[in-house]
Amino acid sequence: MRPLAGPMKILGISQGIIAPLRVDEEDLGLLVVFGSEAISSEDEPAIDSFAGQVAISLRNARLAKQVEIELVERRLAEEAVRRTENHFRALIEKAPDGITLVGVDGKIKYTSPSARKMFGYDLDDDINESPLEHIHPDDLSSVLKAMNDLIQDPACIPTLEYRYKHKNSTYYWVESTLSNQLAEPSVQAVVINFRNITERKLIEKTLFESERYYRALIENASDGILAVDTEARIIYESPSVAHLLGYEPYTLIGTNALDLIHPTLIAKHHSGLEHTTCPPGNASPSKWKWRYFEILSHYLTNDPVIKGVIINGRDITERKQMEGALKASENRYRILYEDNPSRLYTKQTNVVSVNKFGAEQLGYTANELIGCSLFDIFHTEDRALVRERFTACLQNMEQSIQTEARKICKDGTILWVRESARGVHDSHGQGGHSYHL
User: CA nearest 390: which of 434, 429, 426?
Assistant: First the structure.
């Protein structure tokens, strides 16, 4: 404590004293005591004691204020924690994906409402068991391996697909992501986040079976199938292509499809790549010789998957050879027909065909005789005989009947002829047709 002689004189005060306000070496302020009467040295201990009590009171008031502030801050922090907790709880409980916590003992500690709903459990159902008991036996080994990896390496976050048993004992496909939070004090569990992918799996299975079905159709088809891009490069060949063309399987992929076409047809079919169809009758080289193919092209250049042309080809070499042989045979028989002396072909009693020699023999052209009655060509006195022989010819198919009669030429002259007639069937097996030689 110190006397205040100087300041008191200024203030007109006769006596005064200053006492420090100190607690545990901490200065909180000063206590100033003054008055008109003199302060004796006996009063100083009392003033000093009072100053100590004031210092303690000040410190207690300050501590109380700090406690009040800390309590407010704690309440605010707890409220923020509650809001955050409620926020994340709402996210978990309303999320479409399921969440399950599995404790260190391997049993379920928590199951979100969406997880319960996914597998048919009510909110009040007790689910305190190991999830491994509900995994399909065929998938259990892969899940156990993922769990082991997770325990060995907590940073590992595996994602896997497996089947999990519903409450009604059916299995649903789920896609799960596992996270090791055993070391996190607030969790102390393995967190399993999963979603139902059963519908996706069914779609994938349907697509797989559909693809397998159509692939089997293509790979076992007798026709060859090629897919070429817009540059005519082969990007796919069916197994039958190798058999049809004599190449090793799949050796044509990457080659130019135009190299398979006969050089004389290249220009025609190169332009065909820019149009909608390729006509049949294409020649294509096998390993040893050229062969004819009938092809049908489907232009799918705008298809996002194909982006090219699908070509179906059928080997028609044997058919072309038969057509050539038939044409040659027809030419040979036509020559025989045209050069044969007097040949007629009738349907019922009308002339439907006559060769050049037969028409010129009577002074007609072939077109003048076609369509007229067979009997009009013969002399009126011989028509009854010719009609009788014609009827007998049709009644005894494949048997030749001889007739001698007179024909009337275009100029009216009479021509005696000896004819051999035979009844024949048409292409439908119907009678009523005859040849006259």
Answer: 434
| pLDDT tens column, 221-251 | 888 999 999 888 999 999 988 888 888 888 8
DSSP classification of residue 369: H
- Name every residue whose Cβ is closer than 8 Å to that of residue 155 and which is 6 or more positions away in sequence: none
Q: Considering only CA atoms, which of 269, 267, 273, 299 is closest in space to residue 281?
A: 269
Q: Which two tokens stand for residue 18?
A: 């200053």
Amino acid (1-letter code) at residue 56: I
pLDDT digits (tens, 9 = 90+) for 341-372: 655 555 667 888 888 888 888 899 888 888 88
What string of DSSP letters covers 305-341? Answer: TT-EEEEEEEE-HHHHHHHHHHHHHHHHHHHHHHHSS
The Cα–Cα gap between 15 and 36 comes to 6
Block residue for tokens 């928590």: 110
Cβ atoms of 296 and 278 closer than 8 Å = yes
Instruction: Give pLDDT tens digits for 171-195.
Output: 999 999 999 999 988 889 999 999 9
* Tokens at 150, concatenated: 């997770």
92-111 residue pLDDT tens? 666 778 888 999 888 998 88
Helix (H, G, I), strand (E, B) or coil at 216: helix
Neighbours of 417 (CB within 10 A): 17
DSSP-assigned letters across all residues of 137-182? GGGHHHHHHHHHHHHH-TT---EEEEEEE-TTS-EEEEEEEEEEET
How is residue 349 written in tokens? 């009693």
Q: What tokens were used for 429?
A: 């097996």
Listed as own residue / partner, the contacts of 167-174 with beta carbons closer than 8 Å and 24 or more positions apart are: 167/119, 167/120, 167/121, 168/120, 171/136, 172/118, 172/119, 172/196, 172/198, 173/197, 173/198, 173/200, 173/201, 174/98
Question: Alpha-carbon distance 102 to 83, whole Å?
Answer: 25
Distance CA 285, CA 260 (A): 6
Which strands make up the sheet holding 290-300, listed edge to edge?
234-237, 224-228, 308-315, 290-300, 282-285
Count CB-CB contacts under 10 A for residue 202: 11
Quickly list H helices, 21-168: 44-94, 113-118, 140-152
DSSP secondary-structure letter at 36? S
- DSSP 8-class letter at 373: B
Cβ burial of 143 (10 Å; 0-12, 13-18, 19+) is: buried
Q: Concatenated DSSP letters for 1-30?
A: -EE-HHHHHHHT-SEEEEEEEEETTEEEEE
